[in-house]
Amino acid sequence: MRVSTTSAIAAGAFATLASAAENYLGFNSGATKTDNSAKFKEDFLAEFTTAQGLKGAPGKFDAVRLYTNIQAYSENDPIEAFDAAVETKTKILLGLWTSGTDNIDNEMAALKSGLAKHGDDLAKLIIGVSIGSEDLYRISVTGLKNDPDGVGAGPEVITKFIKEFKSEFADSAISDVPIGHVDTWDAWTNGTNKAVIDAVDWIGVDEYPYYEDGKGNNIKNSGSLFDAAYDATIAAAGGKPVWVTETGYPYTGIKWGEAVASVENAEYYWQEVGCRRLFNKTPTFWYNLRDSNGANKQSFAITNNLSTTPRFNLTCPDTFDTPSSTSSSSGTATGTATSKHTSTATSSSDSDATSTSVVSPASSAGASGSGSGSGSGSDSPTATGTDGSSSSQTVVPDSGASSLTISATLLVAVFGAAFALL
After folding, report:
1. Is residue 246 among the annotated active site residues?
2. Catalytic annotation, pick one of 107, 246, 258, 272
C-alpha cells in the first residue's frame, strides 16, 4: 500500500495522540486445554510464570488476553485465571464471549464476582476489555465459507453489548478501562462494521499470513502480507489505537497454500513480524504460549510443556528481510488506549489450498470461547505434521512491552510538519 509522505506524517501524529504511555507483551489463554478439560488456577499459574520467565524474550511477557470471564463448564463462576493473575501480577485484557447469545449477563456476573473477591488487586491489572472475538468475521462471506456452521454476531449486537457493559460498570473500579472489540483485519475494513469502530476505544486485530492462501503466502512473504493487513486496519481505525490481539505461525500442522508449518518458519515469523513490527511498539498478544484448541490442525505453541526454554531463539535480530511499510517507518499505528491503571526459513511454491481469505487459529472456539484463531481456507490442505492443536476450546476461547512517551513539544512539531505539507 503506497501512502504519501504527508499522509504518513499526519497519520502518525493522529495515532500518537490516540496512544497512551504503555504497550504490553502477552499471549492468549483459553479456558480449556486441548482435550477440552477445564483449566484451573494451577494451569494459569504455570502459563503466566513461564511467560514471564521466557529465555531470550525481547521484553517481559507479563500480560494475557482472555476470551471469557467465566470458569469453564460453570454458569457464571469467575475464571480462575483471575486468581493466578493476581498472584503473578499479570496484566489482563478481559474478553467477553458474545457469539450465539442474546445477553452477556453471565459474563458480567462472573467479572463482578472476581472483582468482589480480589478488589483493587484485580482491577488494577485490567488493561482493557474486549467485547467479543471475531464475531463479525464468523458471519462474513469468508467466515461462512470456511465454516458454514460458524456462529457470530453482527455490529448491532456488538454495539448493544458494549453499551450494556459500559452502563453496568460505570460506577465500578474499572469504569475507565478502555473498551474494544477483536476481529480479523478484513472485518475492520468492511464498511458495514463501522458502527463497532465508532463504539470502541481501541480495536484488536487478529492476522495470520499463514492462512492468506492465494496471495503468495510463503514464509518469505509473511512480513509483507502482515504489513498490508495491519496497515489496512490502521487506516480503517480512524485514529483509534490498534492492538494486535492474535498473530503467530505454526511449528507443525497442515500445509496451507504456499505456507509450510515448521519450527524454522515460526522463528522467522517471530523475527520478521514480532521483532520488526510489533514488540515494544504496540500492545501485542502472540498466538501462542501453549496450544489449547484441540480442533485445530496446526500447533502454534512456542514452548514445549511450558518450558521457559522456547522451541526457537526469541532474541530479536538487528536486521530484517521485510521492507519497512510506510506505516511502520513513519510510526503510524498504535499504542494503548487511555486507562488510569496505569534462522533459515523454508517455503514451498506448491499451493494445496484454494480459498483466499483470512483466518485465525482461535475463531473456531465454542459457544463461550475457549481459544481462538481465524482460519481461511483450504478445501483440501496437505498434511505436513503430526500434531494438530492450536489454541481454543469449547467453553470459552483463548489469544506489549515497554513504555512509549512523547512530549507536547514533539507533538507540536509533528503536527506542524504534517500540516505544513498539506
Report:
1. yes
2. 246
